[in-house]
Structures are given as structure tokens and as C-alpha cells.
Amino acid sequence: MKETGFPRADAENDFLRARRGQVLSRLSTWLRREPDDVNIMLPFHEVVEALGYLGEHRIGLRVIKLESIVGTVDRSRDFDRRFRPTSARVRERWERLALAARRGEEIPPIEVYRVGELHFIIDGHHRVSVAIAQGLSTIEAMVTVVRTKLDPGGIRHRGDLIVKDYRRLFLERVPLTGHARASVIVSDPWDYAKLGEHVEAWGFRLMQDEGKFCDRASVAQRWFEEEFVPVVGMLRQAGLIGDRTDAEAYMWVAAERYRLIRTHRWDDEVIEKLRSRQS
User: Fold this and answer.
1) Collapsing DSSP states into helix, strand and coil, what is residue 149?
2) Which candidate among 69, 193, 263, 265 keeps its CA 20 to 30 Å from the CA of 40?
3) How many CA atoms within 13 Å lie on the side-chain side of 236?
């Protein structure tokens, strides 16, 4: 839509264009049968709970990319994931801010939490919505950095939080670090619970065999070095990984091994029986 040259009329058109975009996006999502959460802003508190809160500190005024703002603190339903108005309820305030921006008036910075590279609005939903509608790419913000146990990478929709939450719980039960931590990945969040139980059982047998207590960190490290890495290596040589992650392949053969052979050992005979079972 071309600008009229009259700031008030252009501000009104900004709002109408943003509302139209939101309605069309919602219709498109319904027609494609996409999950309901693809157009919902990520709730800050659910994200931090899933990742594990460690602490926070304020770093002050920064210029941030609008595309990095993915969520909100107050679960606002007035805007969708792309900060387009979801109803006419916000129109008066929205157009007032749009008019001020078009007249070049000073707009105060928004306030956000930063988690990794993502930002969550504490205050300033309308200002972000107006800035996006007017084609801006950045905005000034007062930033508070929040540190979490897990990296927020990979979070796009609300449903992604389930995987993060189960992974956080798994790593509390099996406190892997460094390369080991990065290597043990599964796609189904329920598999983290199953794998956690498996590692704990492995640790229990280890303590029985050695007749001494091992803490969780020691069990986790020894399981990774003495069980996971060698087994995954054998599975790679035998061509049994397939399209699974290493951890998913390990879980599958560990379950099959015990179900078919009733043993906890690993050797060539076990691998051959598993290979013949797969074929």
C-alpha cells in the first residue's frame, strides 16, 4: 500500500495492513493443518523452566534485531508470533505509536530478556509491532541477559520446549559434560526418560560388580566412555546406525540385545544376532 503523505492516514493504513496479514497468516496455517503453536509467541517462563534457570544480569541499552524477538513475559494474546495485531482491541494505542514514529518523535526503548540469541519482551509489544509493520529491522532495547543450563538453540515453537525440558531432566540424572553431553541426543522427548533409567541401571550393575559407590557424575562419564562410545563404534562398523542418532541406535540395540539374548554383554556374537534380526 502506497503512503499518502499524511502521517495519520498512513498510521491507520499501517494497522490495517498488519491486521490483514495476521488474518491471512492464520487462515494459511489452518489450511496447511499446521500445529496451533506456530503463530503463538513463546512464553518466557516456560522457556526458562525448560532450559533450567541459572541467573541473570542487566547489560543496559542495546540495539537488537527485531527478528530475534520471539516471545513475551506476560503471555500477551494481542499479537501473534510476528507481532501482528490479533484483534482491533489494540488499534487506538497502536495507531498513536505509529503516528508518533512517522512524525519522528522519540520512542522510548523496549525492555527485554535475552536468552542465548533470543529475546523476550517485558515491555514494548506495541512498539515492536509498529516497528515491524513500518519495515524496520532493529530496535533499541534495555536488555537483561538470562543464563540457562541448556542452550536455547533449536527452539522455534512452543512444542520444542518439551524436548528441552526432558533433556534438562535427563542431564540432571545423567550429568554428562563437554563432548559427551553434546553426543547424546534423541528426537523423541520420552526417550530421554528411558535412557536415563537405562544409564541408572547400568550404574547400579557397575557398583554391584566393583563393590563400591559411584556418584552420578562418575556413572555418567564411565557409561559414556566404557559403554556408549564402544557400542556406537561397533554399530557403525556393522551398519546398524541407519537414520537414527547415535543415542537412538544405542537404545534400540540395547533393548533388542536384552530381549533376544538376555545378556548385558557386548561382543561380535551379539552384534551378528542383532544384524540378522534387523534383516
Assistant:
1) coil
2) 193
3) 9
